[in-house]
Amino acid sequence: MEERDRKLIEQYGDTDPELKTLWEEHMLFERQLAKYEEKAYLTPVEEMEMKTLKKQKLEGKTKLAAALDKYKK
User: What is the pTM of this model?
Assistant: First the structure.
């Protein structure tokens, strides 16, 4: 996430509940993925969970970018 985007989230997050929720979900996915990335070995189940988290994070990032677009104008 770019610094400009982070500043917009800080500025408008308190007044835009959708933006705040999307950002919180994004950070949650990052923390969950970091736990898997710390491991030396992943079980097949963990690999599937990690792939699912990455997809969810990407979908959320797309929604977050769309929500930020209205503040970039």
Answer: 0.85
